[in-house]
Amino acid sequence: MLKIVVLVSGGGTNLQAIIDGIENQTIHNTEIVGVISNNRNAYALKRAEQKNIPAACISPKDYENRALFYQALLKKVHEFSPDFIVLAGFLVAIPEEMVKQYENRIINIHPSLIPSFCGVGYYGLKVHEAVLQRGVKITGATVHFVDSGTDTGPIFLQKEVYVEEEDTPEVLQRRVMEQAEWLILPKAIDLIAQGRVFVSGNKVYVKEHEIES
Asked: What is the DSSP letter of 62?
């Protein structure tokens, strides 16, 4: 059983996609052992509560400095004893110590086709605003492993989404969620749970069949 902790800042639609995937068994052999948000008003915490998933808010506003916040965040993650960490719309940089301790065991969903529209300053609706301002015809979403940079880790899965002429950032955001994020994030977790994924250097490889233990 793959035990995952999901970190999320807002509404938790990607968290819901994971919950639904586990319930309808498109995600196999996986359990959400905890949900952590930096935002005490995040609806994601309510989603967790409704499914009796342990949840906690660790907010930087409650600590004197970022170092203390990072210590508290890492401590809470450790308390859940996860095999894997999933960043599902977590808008706070995670501590470098977490990246080291969970090397190649953290994935993130980003609402563009990396390396386009990613890095510092590109998050949430800002990504889709930039896509429309640039006039690109195809955008999408990316699941990648997390390293010490911002959206620089090995790319795992990507799915393209067409940009329509009449799109607003909000409309495009919704389409990217529906047509890409909610599909590839559960798929990524399922492949990991099947033991079919390994990382070598800056590349992610997926075995055709489950890796024998």
From this structure: G
Q: Is 118 exposed, middle or buried (0-12, 13-18, 19+ CB in 10 A)?
A: buried
Q: Tell me, rounded to whole angstroms, the distance of Cα 92 from its chain centroid.
A: 12
> Residue 110 forms beta bridges with which residues?
142
- d(Cα 80, Cα 47) in Å, to the nearest integer? 18
Report DSSP letters for 145-165, one per residue.
Answer: E--SSSS-SPEEEEEEEEPPT
pLDDT in tens, 153-208: 999 999 999 999 999 999 999 999 999 999 999 999 999 999 999 999 999 999 98
Residue of 28, 110, 128, 144 marked active site: 110
pLDDT in the model for residue 212? 47
d(CA 88, CA 181): 9
The C-alpha atoms of residue 206 and residue 156 are separated, in whole angstroms, by 9
Assess whether 28 carries a catalytic annotation.
Answer: no
- 112 pLDDT band, cuts 50/70/90, is very high
Amino acid at residue number 82: P
Reported as a single tens digit per residue, the pLDDT across 3-24 is: 999 999 999 999 999 999 999 9
